[in-house]
């Protein structure tokens, strides 16, 4: 590699600050605490229905994302990452629609926008930084009938995120197809902020961001990029796209990330854990909802993963916390989704990263399923022991690595505990864009004077990371 990662990671890259109205409050948000299956199965019960303004925004986002992903994935554009410009570069798509009769739009705000037929457009690329969109009279050239208004789409660091998607083995065609063809199920975040979540298929979460969060992500992107490359099994969010939509005066920041609960299994319980105790419980009214995300004081049992996987998990959490501490981040959470297995399905969980519910449908021992050693995941100790005892043979001990975090139907199969059902845990660290800024320092000072400072959420990054790691170590067995 022609550059030194440590030097690159120590540089504070500059970018042009963006001055615009804030879409939502600046509180920390839960990036994926809602269950995607609840959104898909109960789309009519998600709170505010998608009004026409929201649908228009989604239409514009889908169209622009298709152009952006197709362009950056073109074979002629493939090249190594340039650390001098690819972390800060912006590409822009501008679409102008004639005869637009709609008033100003706001994401999930007041409706009442009138549709007008949009002309077709052609796209020509004028350079590495700008994509110009020109009007065309050929309506067959692009499908733009769904574009209701003029808008500007900004793609932040597209080559960097393209490399991240490649690193996570995300097929660009499949990624683009899901974003374009799947319905975006919207729901407000369960936290205190006014951010909006959109679930696209089972794999992707699209979340609105404040300007503060957007600018902060751009400032740490170079560090995040190299950390992910050095830690392929990180529990941090897998950010795969960062965008901005400017539409009729509204400026909307968007981050696209992989869903922690990317599985076909039902998530029976969800926990958002910080390691603090002040106010960290779900109300009785919240617990009555099947979509409830519980908190630290609601957790009444350990997460049973066994000694070997526990050591790997704690080590990865420590690495992730060290990165967040160095990036001056706090107020993040450990998201846990629990799928409780039926009593007849304890054996043969197998590796089903595709999200299937039934695991392997055969009875071959695990070594027969991975003769070349290139399995996508790793079997847990319990699976190997069960297989060994079933066939009465002694298998050589197999080393495990971070792939075990997602090797059991996309999660981690629990160890057997007397009197309990087996579970699958889906885990991740979320809400990593809250910098310990002046507002948070004041919050520490004020709330810390009223409550026990060691138990509140808003504490300096070093203290937060230490407490977070200590708490996770205490609940993982």
Give your account of this protein's structure.
It comes from Trypanosoma theileri. Residues 41-50 have a biased composition (Polar residues). Residues 19-50 are annotated as: Disordered. Residues 93-476 form the PIPK domain. With 477 residues, the protein is α+β, with helices and mostly antiparallel strands. Strand 5 and strand 6 form a beta hairpin. The protein folds into 2 domains: 15-258, Phosphatidylinositol Phosphate Kinase II Beta; 269-475, 2-Layer Sandwich (Phosphatidylinositol Phosphate Kinase Iibeta, Chain: A, domain 2). It has 11 helices and 13 strands. The relative contact order is 0.14. It is globular.
Give the distance, in angstroms, between the N- and C-terminal Cα atoms. 39 Å
Give the overall silhouette: globular
Question: β content, as a range?
Answer: 15-25%
Number of helices: 11
CATH class of the largest domain: Alpha Beta
Count all strands and give the number: 13
Portion of residues within helices: 25-40%
- Helix/strand class: alpha+beta
Q: Look up the CATH topology of the largest domain.
A: Phosphatidylinositol Phosphate Kinase II Beta
What would you say the CATH architecture of the largest domain is?
2-Layer Sandwich
CATH superfamily of the largest domain: Phosphatidylinositol Phosphate Kinase II Beta
Sketch the topology as an H/E string, one letter per element.
HHHEEEEHHEEEHEEEHHEHEEHH
* Overall domain count: 2
Low-pLDDT regions: 1-48, 102-142, 348-398
Keywords: ATP-binding, Kinase, Nucleotide-binding, Transferase
GO molecular function, one term: 1-phosphatidylinositol-4-phosphate 5-kinase activity
Protein name: Putative phosphatidylinositol-4-phosphate 5-kinase-like
InterPro entries: PInositol-4-P-4/5-kinase_C_sf (IPR027483), PInositol-4-P-4/5-kinase_core (IPR002498), PInositol-4-P-5-kinase_N (IPR027484), PInositol-4/5-P-5/4-kinase (IPR023610)
